[in-house]
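Office hours follow-up: a student asked to see two folded examples consecutively, so here they are.
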Amino acid sequence: MAHPQMFDDDDPYLARVRATCGRFPGVTERVSHGRPTFRTAKIFVTYGGGTKGPASTRVRYDHSILVLPDEAERPALEQDERYYLPAYEGAYGWIGLDLAHGGTTVAQVDWDEVFELVDASYRQVSPARLVAEWDAASPPSG
């Protein structure tokens, strides 16, 4: 049974996430479980997510990203109210960032922070040759 699409192709947050992820070598986008994912050998960003628990306590974060942060950064991220423990992936070290937290608009998102999270996640799951290619390009942040 196919999952329903849980995103809007015209979503301006998704457009910025696509642009950010598209800067990295070897990236492809594929819809998985109804959400856009960005991957090389493995997924390094998922757009959209939610929490687990009883139906009355679950929360969907349609304008968010799921990333695999550096382990050293994880405790600080968990203290920030914009971040959440995503269903399923959270048990494997992933964390979600609600891009629209508190009514934040696309223009108000700290896209440098998003870039750093995406970069860290990319480095953890991508083949060494792609990471080396990325490093050789010496990209600016943001």
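And the second, which I mentioned at the end of office hours:
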Amino acid sequence: MSNYIDNLNWRYATKKFDTTKKVAKEDFETILDAASLTASSYGLQPYKILVIEDPTIREQLKPFAWGQSQITDASYLIAFVHHTTFNEELIDNHIEDISETRGIPSEALAGYSDFMKSKLMPLSDETKAIWAAKQTYIALGNVLSAAADLKIDTCPMEGFEPAEFNKILGLDAQNLNTSVLVTIGYRAEDDDTQHYKKVRKSKEKLIQYI
């Protein structure tokens, strides 16, 4: 556990990536495994993880991420995109996955299915979208931690224009919205940000025991 905390202290939001260093495919797959294993409400994972590899598309996206160099210079760019609305199919598909994975007849899961539908289906589209977007941040946290554990650098990014990203990535027609980005690679030696002392609230200020 001490190594894990040391690695979290080592990580920072990398502002400049070394374009000559590429994250190994095997390591990147490990990071994606961590993302896919992320906890989510009811296990529904109401989002997709887009790995944007095409350099042309990344160049198109860059102006709508305030021109930040990480978009094009990092080894990988990931966009977490969430459902802006959903219907019972989201739950039905999850029930099918549970049935196949655990060898349980879908009929035996009907009660659980009905419970999820009773809680989620009455929600407005706006509330559904907010709920789904929250789930992406749990996955983002896992990506940041998994990468740090491999001594791979990341930068979580909210500094972008979702509507423009949605257009370029063709998300509107899929009822998807870009929630948050993360760039993955190796820090450049001249990225001064890596030398800044990490600033966090003390545990005494942050944590309250009741």
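Two things to take away from it. The domain at 2-206 is CATH 3.40.109.10 (NADH Oxidase). The chain has a mean pLDDT of 97.
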